[in-house]
User: Fold this.
Amino acid sequence: MRILILGFAAGAAWLQTQASLPPHAGALLSVIAGAALLMAWLLCRHARWRSGWRSAIALSAGVGLGFYWAAWLAQSAMAPQLALADEGQDIVVTGTVANLPYRFEQGVRFNFAVEKALNAKVPPLIALSWYAGFRDEVTNEVGDVQPGERWRLTVRLQRPHGNANPMGFDYEAWLLEQGVRATGYVRPQPRADTPNVRLAAFVPGFGNVVEASRAALRARIAHSLDGKQYAGVIVALVVGDQRAIPQSDWQVFNRTGVSHLISISGLHITMIAGLLALGAGALWRRSFFTDRQLPLLLPTQKVAALAGALAAFLYVLLAGFGVPAQRTLYMLLVVALALWLGRITSIVHILCLALGVVVLLDPWALLWPGFWLSFGAVATMLYATAGRTAAPLPENASRWRRLRAAVALGAHTQYVVTVGLVPLTMLLFSQVSLVSPVANALAIPVISLVVTPLSLAGSLLPAPLCDGLLLLAHAIVQILAQVLDWLGARRFAVWTAPAPPMWSFCWALFGTAWLLAPRGWPHRWAGMLGWLPLLTALPSSPPPGQMWITAFDVGQGMAVLVETHGHRLLYDTGPAYSLDSDGASRVIVPYLRARGIATLDGVIISHSDLDHAGGAISLLENVQVGWLASSLFDGHPAVEARRQAGRPYLHCVAGQSWTWEGVHFAMLHPLPASHTDISLTPNARSCTVKITAGKHAILLAGDIEAAQEAQLLARSADGDLAADVLLAPHHGSGTSSTPAFLNAVHPALAIFQVGHRNRYKHPKPQVYARYGDMGIARLRTDVTGAVVLEFGDDIDATLYRASRPRYWHGR
Assistant:
């Protein structure tokens, strides 16, 4: 059975790497299932086959079943689609608010279960944003949407689409897992006969009851902790909603390795289930202090198991059924079922059954780090403890001795998990927290044994008890956060290195297994040698005289990384998506971390528009930057941050130039006088850079427009502007890319960094056609994803979506 389950998980994982779904998955699934049953019957009839063929047949059957089961689920999930003709059209939909809405300064986001749509075929579940004048020029009053309410809304929708970058988050896969098949926003009321209106205060249903309960608990916490810094942490511990925790706090939690605790984790679920099981068992054993002799009717052990399983189920519902919570729930359910049926089962069987149930219900769970970390932690503990016994304590052992034994066991478990997950953590996050053992030794008992019970009790008990308990929980979190902040601020807090290749990861796993081997294993310390290639790897770089260019897919904005043999330059920092999210925090910083790049030698911010400078502060806070050059105005937050830190800052000025390992950089625009000319727009002052490596060059033109293109032509000699690659000025707007300018640059390739279905309609059709008419190859990041160019003897282009196709992309 265990081999069958492992094969099933492997098959489901294999499916998630496919560029397209196999045809007739349901029929093939039935054939494989029938063949597996036939082979199982034959194995039972012919005992002599068992030893030689059982494992191979079980593994093969598991892989086939997992692959086609995942394919069948994927086909079913992707069947409801929004027609291309309906994208961007006003559609009136009626339905219910299907999850816990997230409120932010510009509006609210929520999932919407569609019951009816006028003049369009809309998928049954869509994700909506309701902005207060953010997307539209007119004022849009945001409705007070609550879970379970029925609304009639006018919306504009599009098919799922996300930014596609190396080492980036796959938003399209996440939407598919959630069952969301279209995204969009609520329109202001365009017609008097179809206003955005609430039709019913609550629509009965199991899911609506759960989400309404979560909303009520969140509202109670928000009321009791109004204005408190760590109210979002308390909400996360009670209902699993982490969206109110600011990015600055997540940075501290990640650096100290305690982010797994800031949610309804498996540890918390086990603790709550255990407490409820103990309480129910004690009451049942005493027959609720009556003379009914209840244990004679039903054994106390079974009642305790039932109470613990029920508590775990309710708590997991509050968590929104995350993967770690699912794993813990299924393991507890298997244990409870074994107790009820009187079957003794091993922890390995329990873990495999939990794995099988998770993948059976959600084959996309394999795509996320939480799945691997969750099961990896349990598997590591099993490996490090299986078959090993400690000397039992004597019955008359003192409390102090028992306490020391418990502390020693906890310390050993923390050591095992910390060490065992190093290879996986480096593979997934390219960093490992060196202060994690200390931070977790403090945070695990505080969060699990004190803060979580206080938060749950404060959320459920009536006033005024609730306020006092929640305030006490918050005060403890605040003190703990100060300690974690101090730990995370240490220079040695985090070790970073590039994401390892598979051979290095496997070698590190072998070393870890050697290190955690039982006592008596020879030279266990030598297992750490397996980590050396993992932890000491250096970022890759081009040979001297060559360069790599990465044009990120940041949506409607610009961000380009330039790499020479020994230096790195970032041109623009991407757009601001919201007050707490931008192109740097979501795309650039994760990419740099995965590559092991901790320092940028220079950053150029072409101008102050938010689609170019929106990620500047996030970048400066998370990456060491040598010098910053820009056309930003005095007083801009990025400029002030550099000056206050005493770090180099300068204005972009035509004539500046430098050379890194044979690669020449030349600033072509703006002129010095432009920085004091208040009549100029930010676009007109865009820093324009030409970079030449050998016989090839690229021109980064920012948002210059026709007037600046004409100035460049007037100031440049023949050939000065020529470049093989052009970053299309102003994203291909109608006010740039004049024929004269394109003739002077004469590029073979143009890159348009644009957002999918952006409201500016960049690139303009006539401009895009102009490039094509001139024989210039065109790449759009909203179609190709990130574009990586390697400048050597030739220019080799790698398009992220083409190099890593997945069946859900564009669907």
Observations:
- The mean pLDDT is 90.
- The chain is about 45% helix and 15% strand.
